[in-house]
Amino acid sequence: MPRRSRLLAPVAAVVVVIIAGLLLAANYWTDYKWFSSIGYSTVFLTELRTRALLFFGAAALMMAAVGASMYIAFRTRPVSRPTSLEQQGLERYRMSIDPRRKLIFWLVAAGLGVLTGLSATGEWSTYLQYANGAEFGTEDPLFNIDISFFAFTYPFLRVILGYLFAAVVFSFLAALVVHYLYGGVRLQTQGQRATSAARVHLSVLLGVFVLLKAGAYWLDRYGLVFSDRGYIFGGAYTDVTAVLYAKIILAIIALVCALLFFANIYFKNIMVPIVSLGLLVLSAILVGGVYPAVVQQFTVSPNEQRLERPYIADNIEYTRQAYGIDDTEVESYDAETELSAQQLSEEAETIPSVRLVDPSVVSETFQQMQQVRGFYQFPDVLDVDRYENEEGEKVDTIVSARELEGPPEDQDNWLTRHMVYTHGFGVVAAAGNEVDSEGRPAFTEYNIPPTGELSDVAGEYEPRIYYGQEGAEYVIVDAEPEYDYPLGGQSEDVPTTDQEGNQEGDPTADEAQAPADGQDGGQDGQDGGQDGQGNDGGQDGGEDSQGGPGDQKTNNYDGDGGVELSSFFDRILYAMKYQEADILLNDAINEDSQILYDRDPAQRVEKTAPFLTVDSEPYPAVVDGDVKWIVDAYTTTNGYPYSTRTDLANATEDTFTQGTNRGNALPGNEANYIRNSVKATVDAYDGSVTLYNWDEQDPVLQTWSDAFPGIMTKKDEISDELKSHLRYPDDLVKVQREMLKEYHITDPDAFYGGQDFWEIPADPTNDGNDPEPPYRQTIRLPGEQEASFSMTSTFVPRDRKNLAAFMSVNSDPNSDDYGKLSILNLPQDSVTLGPGQVQDQFDADSEIRDVLLPLQQNEQSQMIKGNLLTLPFAGGLLYVEPLYVQAEGAESAYPLLQQVMVGFGEEVAIGGNLQEALNNLFAGDDGEGPLDEGQQDGGDADTGDGGGGSGSSDELSKALQDAADAYEKGQKALQDGDFSTYDEANQELKDALDRAEEARDENDEE
Question: Whole-model pTM?
Answer without folding.
Answer: 0.84
